Amino acid sequence: MSERTNKITLLGSVSLGTGVMIGAGIFALVGQVAEFAGDFFPLAFLLGAIVAAVSSYSYIRYSSVNPSSGGIAMLLKDAYGPGVAAGSFSLFMYVSMVVAESLLARTFGTYLLRPFGLQDSVILVPMLGVAAIVAAAIVNLIGNTLVERSATVTAVLKIVGIAVLAIAGLIGVASAGDGFLSKSSGDSINIMGILAGTTLCVLAYKGFTTITNQGDDIRNPKRNIARSILISLAICTVLYLLITVTVSSSIGASGAVDARNYALAQAAEPFFGTWGVGITVVIAVVATLSGLLASLYSVSRLYAMLQKIRQAPSLPKSDPQQPMVITAGLAILVTVFLDLSQIASMGVFLYLTMDMAVQWGVIRHLRSKIKARIWLPALTIVLDLAILVPFAILKVQSDLFTVMVAAVVAAAIITAQVIAVRARSARES
Description:
Elements: H1 3-6, H2 10-21, H3 24-28, H4 30-37, H5 41-65, H6 71-80, H7 84-113, H8 124-142, H9 144-176, H10 191-203, H11 209-212, H12 221-250, H13 252-258, H14 263-308, H15 322-337, H16 340-366, H17 375-398, H18 400-428
Helix pairs in contact: 2-9, 2-12, 2-14, 4-10, 4-13, 5-10, 5-12, 5-16, 5-17, 6-7, 6-16, 7-8, 7-14, 7-15, 7-16, 7-18, 8-14, 8-15, 9-12, 9-14, 10-16, 10-17, 12-14, 13-14, 14-15, 16-17, 16-18, 17-18
């Protein structure tokens, strides 16, 4: 079999990208976003798409010039050199991806238990999440081809499934004659809340960054990475807007908040009854499992690259499957010890911090090399700050513990990088 035959196709790459994006983000975050944005939570998802699209420019430009399996890690190394900054921000990205896997895993457990009324179980939800991670890791260990094939099939299933549910729901609202705003609370617009909600929505789109880690594995990467990212973002934006408008019309923002971790299943019940809940659960299970498959593949590739450039630790025994084992193990730990809200918050803090570092690196060090237009990375930094600051303020007021956990994780990563760089310098001198 030729090397080209083994490469991931454009369809496979889009499937992996959408596989990561269409997962926990839309199934688990709707209620959390509604808690911040109120009636305007569909708008928050649209704004999240805009932020992600603008942000993607830097990743696309760099990947077009220097495609690699290390994608973001290589970008940061080129921008900041092989020191503390590059290593820290690369691990910020890696940990945010691991956290995203835990979000997928717990969402899987939550929706699978919804028909039995056990969706809030503090024991069963993480147990099922751990089982999902283990299963996805085993599939990944079998080989790239199986991952691509499964990602393509499941991507089609969940795209069609979500689209059918959303469109059927909208038709149901229209036929009932109540109007799409019948469940509105009538509360005035809260700009700070919408911006904070948009921060969480970014998690539903950030899966596009996993595509940049496929550089060594994708056919014609200089063209197909950019196409994969843009196509994946477009597909997800349309689906998210359809489904959030449906949820808003069915149960409103207050209903989404009450059903916090399983809002889509709750929204299906008024329209379709018990069978609608069942179908939503099936789609959610497929979406989260396929998301785990795609994410574990991409994130383990990133970790392998971080090991190669000595920015991430290795286990004493050398093994080519080590990155997969480490990534799955960390995801299991987060799944066991943190709930969905805590996982989402920590993920977004680390991701947006890393994203701003990427954009500044492009502006300061890489703009000539990758022929980037400065105003787009600069705009991304402004947008990231515009949504992250309100989110941080509101989270400090409502959930200081999670903010402190995120800060401790960030500090631990930076400290470890400082120690590692000093030790490496001592050995080389």
